[in-house]
Amino acid sequence: MHEVSLIENVIALVEDQRRTESFARVRVIRLQVGALGHAQPDCLRFCFDAVARGTIAEGATLEIDMIAGQGHCPACRRIVALEERLAACPLCANPEVHIIVGDELRLAELEVD
Questions:
Q1: What's the pLDDT band for 2 if we cut at 50, 70, 90?
Q2: Residue 12: partners with Cβ closer than 8 Å, 6 or more residues away
Q3: Is 8 helix (H, G, I), strand (E, B) or coil?
Q4: What per-residue string of b and e applies to 19-36 under the rule 16 or more CB within 10 Å gives b?
Q5: N or C of the chain: less Cβ packing under 10 Å?
Q6: Range of the domain at 68
Q7: H/E run at residue 47
Q8: Could you tell me the pLDDT band of residue 1, with boundaries at 50, 70 and 90?
Q9: CA atoms within 13 A on the CB side of 68
Q10: Residue 45, by phi and psi: left (phi above 0), alpha (psi -120 to 50) or beta?
Q11: What's CA 13's distance to the chain center, in Å?
């Protein structure tokens, strides 16, 4: 389950931020997760409490905002909505749509004390 290492990396980013900003506690960690990415929100939530134990993130709430997939179709030169990574263009059926949004996992916001 690679979500464990993803959460470990997120917590490492939070720890780095703490060293820079000197906050005492994290209340909320908000992630942006692309719908076309490989990270499963339910798995991220499942791993969070166990990985956060004993860190600055222990007791924090993990919030996940899903980012819809979009791609650029070079054949019809349009930006199209994508629901799957390898989906064909819904307008012209071209199989070579390039993902432009929806593949990310980003630490978007921290609420701290």
A1: confident
A2: none
A3: helix
A4: eeeebeebeebebbbbbb
A5: C
A6: 3-112
A7: helix 41-52
A8: low
A9: 5
A10: alpha
A11: 13
Structure tokens at 7: 């959460």
Q: How far is it, in rounded angstroms, from Cα 61 to Cα 51?
A: 13
Residue with tokens 């307008």: 91
CA 89 remoteness from chain centre: 24
Give yes or no for a contact between 71 and 50, defined as CB atoms under 8 angstroms apart. no
And the tokens for 89?
């263009």
Measured distance between the N- and C-terminal CA atoms of the chain, rounded to whole angstroms: 31
* Number of domains composing the chain: 1
Tell me the one-letter amino acid at 74: P
Domain with 61 in it: what CATH number?
3.30.2320.80
DSSP bridge partners of 71 = 80, 99
Contact 42, 11 (CB under 8 A): no
pTM of the entire predicted model: 0.86
